[in-house]
Amino acid sequence: MGSARFDRPEDYWHRSSGGCGSMKNPAASALPSATGWMGCWWWPVASSVFRERSLNTDDGAPRHRVQPHPDGAFQIMGQAVVVTSGGIGGDHDLVRKVWPKRLGTPPETMVSGVPAHVDGRMLAISQARGARVINPDRLWAYVEGVRNWDPIWANHGIRILPGPSSLWLDASGQRLPAPFYPGFDTLGTLKHLRETGHDYSRFVLTQKVIEKEFALSGSEQNPDLTGKDHRLLLARLKSGAPGPVEAFKEHGQDFVVANSVEELVAGMNRVGEPGMISEDHLRELLETHDLEIGKKFSKDAQVTAVRGARQYLGDRLIRTAKPHKFLDPRNGPLIAVRLNILTRKTLGGLETDLSARCLTESGQVLPGLYAAGEVSGFGGGGMMGYNALEGTFLGGCLFSGRVAGRGAAGDV
Asked: How far apart are CA 194 and CA 175, in angstroms?
């Protein structure tokens, strides 16, 4: 028998975020009852209304019981508790505490890719009840975060999903070495940038690049995909940047738009630390890039990669800009983007067996307690390893959730 205790509803109200809203809604509508689904308290419904306080796994508690407490909290009891509370990205102090040494020193400044309630509370609460947490240093932080000009939560960061053409510079204006190009190696780039002593880096690009190569994470940034709007999706084939991208370019505090190198450098030094970017150095980088663009067989590995990407029809149509000279006014204006470290995914968590049952420190099953999704490292406590394959996280959530649901159903 398990139970979960919650504060009053006014303490927390969570809203769906990211690209998962369109998946959550059908699942939620299929539930016959939030408080009595097969004798199991379904945690996403719980966490969408109330803030968790404690977790019990005592035997003998009545089935389907709601128990009020004098302090205004209440307790819901069932034969199983399934924890799907996400990772730790909303608590930056906790992120810094478990930051892996292999990635260098933890950043002092980050933006949040998840809401504040994704704070690791249920990891600590479950651990206090006997569950084991493993692989806490398996983090997945992005390096292409920009501050949301229209935030949904505090310090809300949005990730740029970049194509390969932007020049990537560190905070001082030095170009990142191969293979740390846009979209190539998230954790490798993060490790390199942590060695620079600064918490941010920069893209330098043109209007033609942003039109073709910038996509933004988050359901509200992709209304064509999450709204299943085929007509709006086809608009991506047209010239011009998508509306949400243009809105960031116009309103985003990390964006600088300029018609000259001099103006661009002034803006970059205003958005970043003053005096970090030299006009002569940036102009030299751009001129060198443009010289390589003019060569049929470039020695620049990034230029070669861009040309290789365009061999694939899908990339050529909607993902990779035609190679062009950045200093040619016909391709402008010039754009610089300050990139912040963005907290996002937790690849370790509650250790579970193959039935998604939480395990104790001794490896024994903790009766009545299940975990799925990111709180269990997308399954088992870290099935993704240290360097996960981008795009595979959702599958771990779905599969571990299916396993946990079947296991909990077997308890009732």
From this structure: 15
Cα separations (Å) of 392 from 136, 179, 380, 395, 397? Answer: 19, 22, 15, 6, 9
For residue 62, is the peptide bond before it cis, meaning its omega torsion is within 30 degrees of 0? no
Q: What's the CA gap between 95 and 363, in Å, rounded?
A: 26
**pLDDT of amino acid 2:** 58
- Residue 383, helix vs strand vs coil: coil
Contact indicator for 179, 188 with CB cutoff of 8 Å:
yes
Kindly state the DSSP code that residue 275 receives in the 8-state scheme: T
* Better pLDDT: 5 or 281: 281
Q: What is the mean pLDDT of residues 325-349?
A: 96
Q: Backbone dihedral region of 379: left (phi > 0), alpha (psi from -120 to 50 degrees) or beta?
A: left
Cα angle 186, 378, 368 (rounded to 5 degrees) comes to 160
Which two tokens mark 409? 């159903």
Question: How confident is the model over 103-123, as pLDDT tens digits?
Answer: 999 999 999 999 999 999 999
Rg of the chain (C-alpha set):
24
- The alpha carbon of residue 87 and the mean position of all alpha carbons in its chain are separated, in whole angstroms, by 11
Identify whether the C-beta of residue 251 lies closer than 8 Å to the C-beta of residue 149.
yes
Q: Which two tokens stand for residue 380?
A: 């088992």
- The answer to whether residues 379 and 357 touch, using CB atoms and an 8 Å cutoff, is no
Cα-based distances in Å from 98 to 61, 108, 171, 363:
36, 14, 25, 23
Q: Compute φ and ψ for 122, nearest 5 degrees.
A: -75, -25
Q: Which domains does the chain have, with CATH numbers?
A: 2-85+120-138+347-409 (3.50.50.60), 142-342 (3.90.700)
CA distance 3 to 46: 12
Say if CB 355 and CB 82 are below 8 A apart.
no
d(CA 277, CA 251): 22
Q: Strands 133-134, 349-350: parallel, antiparallel or unpaired by DSSP?
A: antiparallel
What values do phi and psi take at 256, rounded to 5? -125, 130
What value does the mean pLDDT of the chain take?
85
